[in-house]
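TL;DR need C-alpha cells for one chain.
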Amino acid sequence: MTRPMRLAAAASVLLVLLAGCQSTDSTGVVRTNEPAKGDYTAFGDTFDGLKTISDVDYYASDQAVTEAKTQFRSENYGNAGALFYKATRLAPNDGVAWLGLAASCDRIRRFDLADMAYGRAYRLLGATPEYYNNLGYSYLLRGKLQDARSNFLKAYELAPNDPTVANNLKLLSSSVRNIERS
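>> reply
TL;DR here they are.
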C-alpha cells in the first residue's frame, strides 16, 4: 500500500470514529457525548431523567452575584464591588455582574472603573432600562445633570411603569431645584 493510500484509509477510519460521537437534535444543533435514549449508565440504570449540562440553570457566578446584591442592599458597596468583580472573573459574559460592578464603583466614587464596567455591560446587555437607569444615576452622582437626565429619559422610554426610573427622575428634578453648597 502506498503512502497516500494509507493516509486516506487512516483519515476515513478517523472520520467514521468521530461521526459516532455526535448526534443532531430536531433544531439542527450538533451535540457531543450525550446519551441516546435507552443507553445505560455504569450503574445499570437508564439515562432518562438525568440532566445534561445544557439543562442546568446554574452558572459559576450565581452565588457571587447573589451575595453581592445582598451587600449592595446593605450599603456595603466595597464588599459588593469585590463580589461583583469576582463574578465577572468567574463568568466574563455575565452582564448583570458587570452592571452591578459599575453601580458599586459609582457608590465608592471610582468613576473610572464604573465607566469601564458600564462599557462592558452595554456590550453584553444592550440598551436595557436598567442599564440607562444605572448610568443616569452614575451621572447624577458625578454632578452631570444633563447626561443623567438624558439616560433617565431613555430608561423611561423603555420602561415607563418602572418605579425606580420614575423615582430617579424625581430625584433629578429635586437636585436641580435644591442646589446645596458647603
